[in-house]
Amino acid sequence: MLDGTEMLKLLVGLKQAGDIDLAWDEEVLATVCEPQDQPRVHAMAAIVHDLLGAFDYAASPEYLATREKLLTPEKQREAAARCGRSLTELLTTNEAYALIPAARHPLLDELKRLAASFG
């Protein structure tokens, strides 16, 4: 029977091969674990499926830390100034939408609507 590390390797391999459903196959389980371990294997398989299925390296702490290192204080100041300029040009360009996170785009839309209302 497999130990914890071997089980993780098996489940990750199954997920990467697109065969994670085999973690619920009775014949497969009989070869890798005791019957009383099956609920734990199912729970582990569900977690592996979720973690690898939703994996986004760009959102990982590792990537964000690397990106943060590249952002010097000078570049941050330049970007902030550029963002300010883009807000002043909101009625004529869409540059602000490239600088402001998408979750805040409704605020840009409202700001644009209000600015346009001045005629």
TrEMBL record:
Output the superkingdom of the source species.
Bacteria
Its name, as the record gives it, is: Uncharacterized protein
